[in-house]
Amino acid sequence: MAKHRPPPDTAAAAPDDDAALFRSAIGPVRELPPVPAPPPRPRPRPAARMAERDDAEAKGDFLRLLDEAPIEPGDTLRHRRDDVPARVLKRLAQGEYAAQDELDLHHATAASAEAMLRRFLHDARDAGIHCVRVIHGKGLNSEGVPVLKNLCDRLLRQRADVLAFHSAPASQGGTGAVLVLVAPRRG
């Protein structure tokens, strides 16, 4: 025969304090040893705010230039930074600076030409080269405007490492090439 237990007296078994009930059900506990604090989160890397601002400004200038009239096949490319004397641009136009390296962009797409030109200018500056020639073609085979010529003009204007540029003299490619003065590397 099974013994039946009487139902518990709910009034006597339910204490007023739930925490006391929990402690009595668990019994004695031992405290865990202290755990060392986790390492602090690494500090964020400092941001190059000036470089970001310069990039944003250059991008804005680039977008403004896109709104201007495009360069035509026979147009001459010319530009100089404000701190570069006008006589430097004149000497560049006359071909008095010897091109130390050359990049030919013929048959390149606009995207690959842009990447090639950026890499070329970066490498030229790293190598200490001060004058380079970029052959972009006259754009006579382009539909509408000369794509590579306009790309070169806009890209060269926005780069801080380009001091001045001018279409090459006729003997060095004329309006199908541009001579570029690259700023020397600092430090």
Automatic annotation (TrEMBL):
| Gene3D superfamilies, A to Z | 3.30.1370.110
**Entries under InterPro entries matching the protein:** Smr_dom, Smr_dom_sf
- Smr domain: which residues? 103-183
Organism domain of life: Bacteria
Question: A Pfam family in this protein?
Answer: Smr
Q: Which PROSITE patterns match?
A: SMR
Residue segments, region Disordered: 1-56
Q: Where is the composition biased (Pro residues)?
A: 31-41
Q: Cross-referenced SMART domains, in alphabetical order?
A: SMR
**UniProt cross-references to PANTHER family, sorted A to Z:** DNA ENDONUCLEASE SMRA-RELATED
The name this protein carries in UniProt is: Smr/MutS family protein
* Species of origin: Luteimonas kalidii
